[in-house]
Write a structure and sequence with these properties.
mainly alpha, 97 residues, 5 helices
């Protein structure tokens, strides 16, 4: 939430991937978890770049945007929990290959 998505992928991902692999987490599963986290960070204040872009295009005040997107953020958090704690759901297609 405090870094832009590209910066997170460039700075944080190379630091966390070896730790995740050492902990026994599949790198593909870890990547999906990171992308969902980056997406949630992109729409939440204080540094949500997607939030600022959407508000500037639609001429909507940020306060109104945050009020309207709160149920969707809760849905994204539920999806993140499912993706995190049910790895077979995420890894179904990669395991077929």
């Amino acid at each position: 939430m405090f870094l832009e998505g590209g910066a997170v992928l460039i700075i944080i991902a190379p630091l966390l991937v070896p730790v995740a692999v050492n902990m026994g987490i599949d790198p593909i599963h870890f990547g999906v978890i990171m992308i969902v986290n980056i997406m949630i960070g992109g729409v939440t204040p204080p540094f949500g770049t997607m939030m600022f872009t959407t508000c500037s295009i639609t001429n909507l005040p940020i306060v109104e945007f945050v009020k309207e997107i709160m149920p969707l953020i809760l849905a994204l958090l539920v999806a993140l929990a499912i993706v995190t704690y049910v790895p077979s759901l995420v890894m179904f297609l990669p395991n077929l290959l």
